[in-house]
Amino acid sequence: MKHKERNMYQIGQKTTNINKAFIAEHNLLYRVAEHLPSLISKICTDSEIAKNIQCGRTKTTAIVKNVIGQSGSNTIYAILRSSKFSVIIDESTDISTKKHLVIVARYFYENKIHDTFLTLIEMKSSRTADIYKEIVNFNGFRFYKTLLPLFNNLNKEMQSSEPKLYILHSRLCNLYKTILDYFVKKIF
Q: What does the CA dihedral 158, 160, 165, 171 come to, rounded to 10 degrees?
């Protein structure tokens, strides 16, 4: 009987981890984790596995951030290290006057273009040089080798430290302007 109880407990633990992954995947509030085990045990009243599910908000938060999140980040970093990608940045000041920098990577993988949120960094200043430092040194991941910057001032800052950067921004702006001019003239 001890072996069966231990086996049910282990299956319950595995189910608990699946629940945590479900909460993370579907972007549910961590508060749901407090109530999910009791809901499952009420639905599956005859299941020993359902009775052994333990999933609190604190434990779920820790596992999602430190295990699932870290694993996902490592996967993304591996993809970015092996391919060319663009970095999309935006600096914003919230209502409490805190400045934040969001970094998103755009890359081509498995025949699709992906936009992946990388981080949200609280900034002390929104100066170009400070934004540049945060991007280049984000999590020890040196972006400048394959970086496609989006803003002219940032381009200049990056060019001064890495002259081999390939800058498409001005060419793309000219292309967009040419296309827009063509269609506007054609329509009007």
A: 80
Question: Which residues are CB-neighbours of 141 under 8 A, at least 6 positions away?
Answer: 77, 80
Domain boundary (34, 50, 68) is at: 68
* Sign of CA pseudo-dihedral 139, 144, 147, 148: positive
Backbone angles phi, psi at 40, to 5 degrees: -65, -40
Look up residue 101 and give its two tokens: 């920098």
Question: Given CA atoms 138, 131, 102, 88 in this order, what sign does their dihedral have?
Answer: negative
Q: What is the dihedral of CA 50, 55, 60, 64, to 10 degrees?
A: -20
Residue 42 covered by a domain: yes
How confident is the model over 23-82, as pLDDT tens digits?
A: 766 667 677 777 777 777 777 777 777 677 777 777 777 777 777 777 888 888 888 888
- State the pTM of this model: 0.54
Domain boundaries, position 53: 2-68
